[in-house]
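WARN retry 2 of 3 for item q-0093 after timeout on previous attempt; input resubmitted unchanged.
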Amino acid sequence: MQLAGDLHSRPRLSTEPRASASGSSKGFFSIPLAFAGLALAAGLVSCARPGESAAPPAAASADIPVVPASRATRSNLASDLTLTAEFEPFQEVDVMAKVAGYVRTIKVDIGDHVREGQLLATLEIPEMEDELAKAAAAVQQADAEVATASDEIRRANSAHDLARLSFDRIQGVAQKEPGLVPQQQVDEFHSRDLVTAAQVAAAKSSLLAAQQRARVARAEEARLKTMYKYTAITAPYTGVVTKRYANVGAMIQAGTASQSQAMPVVRLSQNNLLRLILPVPESAVPQVRLGQPVDVRVPSLKKTFPGRVARVADKVQMATRTMDTEVDVPNPSLTLIPGMYAEVDLRVAERSNALSVPLEAVDRAGNSARVFAVRAPGVVRILPVNTGLETAQRVEILSGLEEGDVVIVGRRAGLKEGDRVQAKISDTAPEGTAAPKGK
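OK item q-0093 returned
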């Protein structure tokens, strides 16, 4: 019986250690997991701000949008109107011949620089030389007629003096001794006196006519000499020969009628002074002033040249609503060539020390303008403003903002009054910025 009891007790003893071993294994794994959970909870509690839930910081900052912004600053603003045109010569003319003839010589070609009065070409007109000889002979003939008329006056005066003297003598005798000299004889001497007086007057008239014929002959001779001078074609001003039409031996017609098909000799262009004809819009016409300096940019040369408003048409064209304005550009070194494109900055308005913001900061709705300002602490305020001068980058603010105010630049979709934003000021001081006052 005891043996049986011992056998019964061994299994009990052998099973207790296994049960004990199993229980100790569960306790070992459960304790570290509990400590890890407590540590994670403690970390979350320590990262949370007082009065806020334990949420990640990235989630909280993502709710406030970042917007680009700029400050209202004072600057010198200028509104320039950029216009394009082509350089034109100050003067350009096709040099024509005054008289018809054959080209005897031509002394210039394309690209030659000539001075005023320089000989360009000569014409050959043989018949004009004969006309000059004829005119000279006519002058000599007229001078001879004048001399003859002068001699006739002297002869008529002598005859008149003799007739006057004879009449005076016979009339004196007839008065002293009446009846001694017949009255008919007295009347004949009187008539002879009157005839010689008329001959003197006729001789004087003949002299005047001969003198006038001499003047006509001399005028005709002078005209032919003047026309003969036109056989030498000279430059009307200093310039450059841009085209040559005729060669030696070519027949040149007299360019005296607009409907004639006369061929020019050369084309002459004055390039030491160029002009630009700018179409100024009607809105900018009141700001155009004579003598106003302008900057002329030539893209092909990558240079800027000084210019001056020299002439205005004083009339707006009905078709284009523009006014032609001419700008003179000195070109003493002949760097500029007619036909080049040029850009002119015509200043139409200017403001000094004006409060301004970037052009993208102004939101326009109809005739009104507004800005989205950022006031502390990051709250959006929609403010109406009055604008003034606008340039390519900035706009003048007349009222509604103060110097140093922060305004949102660019897209403002989805923003409304009272929204919270983070303003990122990234602009730089504009050109001509004045020093801020107290901010």
